[in-house]
Specification:
The chain is mainly alpha-helical and about 110 residues long. One of its GO terms (biological process) is digestion.
Length: about 110
Amino acid sequence: MSMGGLLVYVLMAALVGVGLTSPVSKSDGNTKQGGILPQLLARREAVWNAAENVAKREQDTQMSMARMARTAHLSEDQREFMSKQIKQAISELMNECPGRDYQGWVDFGRRSAE
């Protein structure tokens, strides 16, 4: 079991424990907020959200470590050069797409008129 999975189980156990030991003010079996069911659903939602956040952080950490491992053998200059090249390639792709699409539609309109 990974460290993130263990953390999720501990977090869920803690929240369930708090939920079971928290006092409930009773008046005909209901709390002041409309019953215990809405409270339990809200706690379940909070636990679910916390588990998703932990899983996302674990995935982000794994991706970051993989990225560092891929570039560990490169010098600082090589990493900087590679970053600039990637940024330039992305920029060129972003600039090409709208122009090419527009040009294609203009040509299509001209051909239809002839």
